[in-house]
Input
Amino acid sequence: MNKAIFLDRDGTINADKHYLHRIEDFEFLPGVIEALQKLQSAGYLMLIITNQSGIARGFYTEDDFLKLKCWMCEKLSLLGVKITDVLYCPHLPDAKIEKYRRVCNCRKPALGLFEQAIEKYRIDLSQSWCIGDKIRDCSLVEKSECRGFLIGNNEDAAVIDDVKKGKYRNVRYADNLLQAAEFIIGEEKL
Ligand SMILES: [Zn+2]
Output
Protein backbone atom coordinates (compact mmCIF):
# COMPACT_ATOMS: atom_id res chain seq x y z
CA MET A 1 0.00 0.00 0.00
CA ASN A 2 1.13 3.54 -0.75
CA LYS A 3 0.53 6.82 0.96
CA ALA A 4 -0.45 9.82 -1.13
CA ILE A 5 -1.14 13.51 -1.19
CA PHE A 6 -4.24 14.32 -3.23
CA LEU A 7 -3.48 17.80 -4.50
CA ASP A 8 -5.76 20.32 -6.09
CA ARG A 9 -4.08 22.32 -8.88
CA ASP A 10 -5.45 25.86 -9.40
CA GLY A 11 -5.04 27.96 -6.26
CA THR A 12 -3.01 25.22 -4.57
CA ILE A 13 -0.01 24.57 -6.85
CA ASN A 14 -0.33 27.53 -9.20
CA ALA A 15 -1.89 30.96 -8.86
CA ASP A 16 -5.60 30.70 -9.68
CA LYS A 17 -6.14 32.83 -12.77
CA HIS A 18 -9.49 32.83 -14.58
CA TYR A 19 -9.71 29.49 -16.41
CA LEU A 20 -5.95 29.25 -16.75
CA HIS A 21 -4.77 27.30 -19.77
CA ARG A 22 -1.74 29.07 -21.26
CA ILE A 23 1.74 28.00 -20.23
CA GLU A 24 2.85 31.65 -20.11
CA ASP A 25 0.15 32.36 -17.49
CA PHE A 26 1.15 29.46 -15.24
CA GLU A 27 2.83 30.58 -12.06
CA PHE A 28 3.84 28.29 -9.17
CA LEU A 29 2.72 29.72 -5.84
CA PRO A 30 5.48 30.62 -3.35
CA GLY A 31 6.92 27.64 -1.47
CA VAL A 32 5.17 25.04 -3.63
CA ILE A 33 8.31 23.47 -5.09
CA GLU A 34 9.88 23.13 -1.66
CA ALA A 35 6.64 21.69 -0.28
CA LEU A 36 6.41 19.07 -3.03
CA GLN A 37 10.09 18.13 -2.65
CA LYS A 38 9.61 17.63 1.08
CA LEU A 39 6.47 15.54 0.69
CA GLN A 40 8.13 13.41 -1.95
CA SER A 41 11.17 12.84 0.27
CA ALA A 42 8.77 11.69 2.97
CA GLY A 43 7.53 8.98 0.60
CA TYR A 44 4.19 10.32 -0.57
CA LEU A 45 2.86 9.77 -4.09
CA MET A 46 1.68 13.04 -5.64
CA LEU A 47 -1.76 12.75 -7.20
CA ILE A 48 -3.24 15.90 -8.69
CA ILE A 49 -7.04 15.89 -8.89
CA THR A 50 -8.52 18.87 -10.69
CA ASN A 51 -11.90 20.14 -11.92
CA GLN A 52 -11.40 21.63 -15.39
CA SER A 53 -14.84 22.95 -16.30
CA GLY A 54 -13.16 25.42 -18.67
CA ILE A 55 -13.06 22.48 -21.10
CA ALA A 56 -16.84 21.97 -20.85
CA ARG A 57 -17.40 25.72 -21.11
CA GLY A 58 -15.36 25.88 -24.31
CA PHE A 59 -12.78 28.28 -22.87
CA TYR A 60 -9.97 25.88 -23.81
CA THR A 61 -9.66 22.37 -25.20
CA GLU A 62 -8.74 19.12 -23.55
CA ASP A 63 -5.58 19.23 -25.64
CA ASP A 64 -4.68 22.69 -24.25
CA PHE A 65 -5.12 21.25 -20.77
CA LEU A 66 -2.94 18.22 -21.54
CA LYS A 67 -0.16 20.38 -23.01
CA LEU A 68 -0.09 22.52 -19.89
CA LYS A 69 -0.14 19.38 -17.75
CA CYS A 70 2.91 17.96 -19.56
CA TRP A 71 4.75 21.24 -19.30
CA MET A 72 4.06 21.44 -15.55
CA CYS A 73 5.09 17.84 -14.92
CA GLU A 74 8.34 18.31 -16.87
CA LYS A 75 9.12 21.50 -15.02
CA LEU A 76 8.59 19.75 -11.69
CA SER A 77 10.57 16.72 -12.81
CA LEU A 78 13.60 18.95 -13.52
CA LEU A 79 13.26 20.13 -9.92
CA GLY A 80 13.19 16.56 -8.62
CA VAL A 81 9.44 16.25 -8.11
CA LYS A 82 7.65 13.32 -9.72
CA ILE A 83 3.91 13.80 -10.14
CA THR A 84 2.49 10.27 -10.11
CA ASP A 85 -0.66 11.21 -11.99
CA VAL A 86 -2.96 14.08 -12.90
CA LEU A 87 -6.66 13.19 -12.97
CA TYR A 88 -9.13 15.76 -14.25
CA CYS A 89 -12.83 16.29 -14.78
CA PRO A 90 -13.75 18.12 -18.02
CA HIS A 91 -17.54 17.89 -17.46
CA LEU A 92 -20.44 20.12 -16.46
CA PRO A 93 -24.19 19.35 -16.46
CA ASP A 94 -24.90 22.46 -18.59
CA ALA A 95 -21.69 22.39 -20.65
CA LYS A 96 -21.51 24.49 -23.78
CA ILE A 97 -19.58 21.70 -25.52
CA GLU A 98 -21.96 18.76 -25.90
CA LYS A 99 -19.27 16.10 -25.57
CA TYR A 100 -18.68 17.15 -21.96
CA ARG A 101 -22.32 17.77 -20.98
CA ARG A 102 -23.21 15.34 -18.22
CA VAL A 103 -23.81 14.87 -14.53
CA CYS A 104 -20.63 12.95 -13.84
CA ASN A 105 -19.23 11.27 -10.78
CA CYS A 106 -15.80 12.84 -11.15
CA ARG A 107 -16.29 16.58 -10.61
CA LYS A 108 -15.24 17.38 -7.05
CA PRO A 109 -16.84 17.17 -4.49
CA ALA A 110 -17.82 13.87 -6.18
CA LEU A 111 -15.29 11.15 -5.44
CA GLY A 112 -14.90 9.43 -8.82
CA LEU A 113 -11.37 10.61 -9.54
CA PHE A 114 -10.24 9.91 -6.00
CA GLU A 115 -11.66 6.38 -6.23
CA GLN A 116 -9.86 5.73 -9.53
CA ALA A 117 -6.56 6.90 -8.06
CA ILE A 118 -7.00 4.96 -4.82
CA GLU A 119 -7.52 1.73 -6.73
CA LYS A 120 -4.86 2.26 -9.39
CA TYR A 121 -2.10 3.26 -6.97
CA ARG A 122 -3.24 1.15 -4.00
CA ILE A 123 -3.54 4.05 -1.60
CA ASP A 124 -3.73 3.59 2.15
CA LEU A 125 -6.10 6.41 3.11
CA SER A 126 -5.19 6.27 6.78
CA GLN A 127 -1.74 7.59 5.82
CA SER A 128 -2.89 10.03 3.13
CA TRP A 129 -3.93 13.67 2.87
CA CYS A 130 -6.03 15.93 0.62
CA ILE A 131 -4.89 19.52 0.14
CA GLY A 132 -6.74 22.29 -1.68
CA ASP A 133 -7.97 25.87 -1.57
CA LYS A 134 -11.65 24.84 -1.65
CA ILE A 135 -13.45 22.68 0.85
CA ARG A 136 -14.67 20.44 -2.02
CA ASP A 137 -11.02 19.40 -2.48
CA CYS A 138 -11.34 17.69 0.90
CA SER A 139 -14.59 15.81 0.14
CA LEU A 140 -12.78 12.49 0.54
CA VAL A 141 -11.95 13.35 4.16
CA GLU A 142 -15.62 13.30 5.13
CA LYS A 143 -16.03 9.78 3.74
CA SER A 144 -12.80 8.09 4.80
CA GLU A 145 -9.83 7.99 7.14
CA CYS A 146 -7.94 10.40 4.90
CA ARG A 147 -7.08 13.76 6.49
CA GLY A 148 -6.98 17.15 4.83
CA PHE A 149 -5.88 20.76 4.67
CA LEU A 150 -7.77 23.77 3.40
CA ILE A 151 -5.20 26.38 2.38
CA GLY A 152 -5.14 30.03 1.37
CA ASN A 153 -7.97 32.52 1.02
CA ASN A 154 -9.93 31.40 -2.01
CA GLU A 155 -12.73 29.65 -0.10
CA ASP A 156 -15.64 31.58 1.49
CA ALA A 157 -14.54 33.37 4.65
CA ALA A 158 -17.26 31.62 6.70
CA VAL A 159 -16.01 28.19 5.60
CA ILE A 160 -12.38 29.11 6.34
CA ASP A 161 -13.50 30.26 9.76
CA ASP A 162 -15.34 26.99 10.42
CA VAL A 163 -12.27 24.99 9.38
CA LYS A 164 -10.12 27.05 11.73
CA LYS A 165 -12.62 26.35 14.52
CA GLY A 166 -12.34 22.62 13.84
CA LYS A 167 -15.91 22.21 12.58
CA TYR A 168 -14.80 19.99 9.70
CA ARG A 169 -13.61 16.67 11.10
CA ASN A 170 -9.97 15.98 10.16
CA VAL A 171 -9.62 19.10 8.01
CA ARG A 172 -7.09 21.66 9.21
CA TYR A 173 -6.25 25.11 7.91
CA ALA A 174 -2.86 26.28 6.62
CA ASP A 175 -1.82 29.52 4.94
CA ASN A 176 -0.18 27.70 2.05
CA LEU A 177 1.05 24.34 0.75
CA LEU A 178 4.45 24.59 2.44
CA GLN A 179 2.88 25.13 5.85
CA ALA A 180 0.61 22.13 5.30
CA ALA A 181 3.57 20.00 4.13
CA GLU A 182 5.59 20.92 7.20
CA PHE A 183 2.72 19.93 9.47
CA ILE A 184 2.28 16.58 7.70
CA ILE A 185 5.98 15.77 7.92
CA GLY A 186 6.11 16.92 11.55
CA GLU A 187 3.22 14.59 12.30
CA GLU A 188 5.16 11.64 10.84
CA LYS A 189 8.02 12.17 13.26
CA LEU A 190 5.76 11.88 16.30
ZN1 LIG B 1 -16.51 14.72 -14.56
